[in-house]
Amino acid sequence: MFRVGLTGGIGSGKSAVADRFRDLGIPIIDADSITRELVKPGSPALQRIAERFGNGVLGTHGRLNRRKLRQLIFEDQNARHDLEDILHPRVKTSILDQLSGLSSPYALVVVPLLVESGMVEMFDRVLVVDCDEAAQIKRVIKRDNCSENEAHAIIQSQASRHKRLAIATDVINNGGDIRLLNTQIQQLHQSFLDLLKQKK
């Protein structure tokens, strides 16, 4: 199975890009969706999180209070690493399980924290969705109804644009032009198919 890892900073447009690849018939595996499943009430991962961070991170009906947990890991670098140690190995195992059940030419795996997760070596190609920080902030404010300072803090907590581009084998520029975005995706899709033909 040819594996393409898709990443990008918050507000870069990863979901929009993944949706377009899905329209082309490519299966999408989403690390964020996996994480949401992993931390359902009663799950082993959520139990470990509560043990590490306290029951204050649990909300109604034992659900994870994401906002509270996000505040904790923004304020404490060690806390962020501890959370990653709990979640990333479980996410990786789930991704590999899902990939093993696919029969398509290639699959796209969306991993927002690809640089931070240590999963880069899992992939044959790394596709980075890139845009400038001003565009990211504008999109995050609109999507999450947060302040500019909050949006900026989230961006600063992630790997830098430079670090993401350093691991990229392919880059999509998502500056806001839909036609250009679609053209880039179509070209990359064909490029991946061509690479697969060469491997045969």
Shape call = globular
Q: Low-confidence segments, ≥5 residues, pLDDT <50?
A: none
CA(first)-CA(last) distance: 12 Å
CATH superfamily annotation of the largest domain: P-loop containing nucleotide triphosphate hydrolases
| Structural domain tally | 2
From the coordinates shown, what is the CATH architecture of the largest domain?
A: 3-Layer(aba) Sandwich
Order of helices and strands: EHEHHHHEHEHHHEH
Number of E strands: 5
**Spatial order of the strands in the main sheet?**
2-3-1-4-5
- CATH topology label of the largest domain: Rossmann fold
What amount of the residues lies in strands? 5-15%
Give the class from helix and strand content and strand pairing: alpha/beta
CATH class of the largest domain: Alpha Beta
Percentage of residues assigned to helices: 55-70%
Give a structural overview.
The protein has 200 residues and is α/β, with parallel strands linked by helices. It has two domains: 1-27 and 105-200, P-loop containing nucleotide triphosphate hydrolases (Rossmann fold, 3-Layer(aba) Sandwich); 34-101, no CATH class. It is 58% helix and 12% strand. Strands 2-3-1-4-5 form a five-stranded parallel beta sheet, sandwiched between helices. Helix 3 (44-53) packs antiparallel against helix 5 (77-100) and helix 7 (133-144) packs across helix 8 (148-157). The chain starts with a strand and ends with a helix. It contains ten helices and five strands; from the N terminus they run E-H-E-H-H-H-H-E-H-E-H-H-H-E-H.
